[in-house]
Amino acid sequence: xxxxxxxxxAIAWWPARSNALRMSTSAGSLLGCKCTLCRERxxxxxxxxxxxxxxxxxxxxxxxxxxxxxxHELICRHPERYVDHVYGEHEVGGTSWLYLSDRPFxxxxxxxxxxxxxxxxxxxxxxxxxxGFAAPLLLCGMLxxxxxxxxxxxxxx
Length: 157
Description:
Elements: E1 9-13, E2 23-26, E3 29-32, H1 39-43, H2 49-53, E4 59-63, H3 64-77, E5 97-99, H4 118-130, H5 134-150
Parallel strand pairs: 1-5
Antiparallel strand pairs: 1-4, 2-3
């Protein structure tokens, strides 16, 4: 489960009890950083550093589909241990981080997110507006006509 292509990778974290945050030092201060899944390590065929050094082996790295299958297998094998939900599987269309927990995810501070991708709504709006390219052409035509009507004649030199 450690080898994966760059287009379908995820990190699974179970149980989701740790408060891990990737930290970086910059100009002598400690800053929180967005995780890049150790791009330089995964490009070299290695797993992210957090997965490699996790002392209790609660982090896994691999293809998202493999991690989801493993998560559902764990839930089926140990229903008393895990909530029957993989957080990140469907939230906002599916995320690169997947979580299992022994308690509701809201108790862990994870937000309740919509199940669909926000991009679907904006894509629907854009496709409705620009369908057939009629609206932009009509707008440009109206602006050109308005410019022509309101344009003051300039005396020639």
